[in-house]
Recover the amino acids of this structure.
């Protein structure tokens, strides 16, 4: 085999020289690709993988935070409903208590007004009776004076006055 035959191709035959040459060129290209392209591409892919992992972790954290916030809001809403119910219950109880106090005070006022009216009526009755007695006494004295003046003598009148004075002293 000659040099020319090692590196020359005849119809349908591949020679070892060409194969070696292709292998050397392929190896050089692999080294160049690894050095200039594979490293940066691998680094870029690793950064992208880290970013995706970071984004997924961040999304999971945000989802957990959102769930916690949703639970807190739900608890706050439940608390506010309970507080509203408690406030309404307290307001109803206070209104009932105030209503009871007002009714009790009104009943007390009515009872005191009734008692005062009874006392005023009794006093008015007593005053009316005293006045009627006084008037009856005055009328009786007047009638008695007229009757006595006609029927009694001066000595009888004097005895009657003396008896009356003695009756006053008792």
């Amino acid at each position: 085999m000659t040099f020319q035959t090692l590196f020359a191709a005849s119809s349908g035959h591949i020679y070892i020289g060409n194969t070696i040459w292709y292998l050397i060129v392929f190896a050089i290209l692999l080294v160049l690709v690894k050095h200039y392209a594979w490293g940066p591409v691998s680094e870029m892919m690793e950064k992208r993988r880290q970013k995706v992992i970071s984004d997924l972790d961040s999304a999971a954290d945000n989802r957990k935070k959102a769930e916690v916030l949703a639970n807190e809001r739900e608890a706050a809403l439940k608390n506010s409903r309970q507080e509203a119910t408690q406030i309404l219950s307290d307001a109803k109880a206070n209104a009932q208590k105030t209503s009871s106090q007002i009714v009790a005070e009104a009943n007390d006022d009515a009872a005191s007004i009734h008692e005062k009216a009874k006392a005023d009526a009794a006093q008015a009755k007593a005053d009316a009776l005293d006045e009627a007695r006084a008037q009856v006494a005055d009328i009786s004295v007047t009638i008695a004076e007229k009757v006595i003046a006609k029927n009694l003598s001066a000595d009888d009148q004097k005895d009657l006055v003396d008896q009356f004075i003695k009756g006053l002293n008792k």
